[in-house]
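Title: Prediction job returns without error message
Component: structure pipeline
Severity: low
Priority: P3
Assignee: unassigned

Description:
Job completed but the reporter wants confirmation the result is attached to the right record. Sequence as submitted:
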Amino acid sequence: QVQLVESGGGLVQAGGSLRLSCAASGLDFSRYRMGWFRQAPGKERKIVADISRFGASTDYVDAVKGRFTISRDNAKNTLYLQMHNLQPEDTGVYYCAAGLQTAQYDYLGRGTQVTVSS
């Protein structure tokens, strides 16, 4: 049974930082491309960053470029999202996702809430 368990969310003031983690189990982690999605209140869930199987390639939406860094540790089956200079518009539930093919995700975690106060 595949499980993706996010942690590290919380309440932070604008300009602050958080580091999200996603612990994966039940899958061969290094076979999967991984991503972070965000669902803001009242909006659709959208991807914010993704990373290739061994971390050589990363991609970000424009809104987070230069502020967020996605990384992974295949030895620990863990995905990370380091977030700096957080802004109120970054508020939402952040989900970890795993997929075998580019832009297609097969598994999704339950999410962790990030709230940024102004």
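Comment from assignee: result matches the submitted record. The first strand starts at residue 3 and ends at 7.
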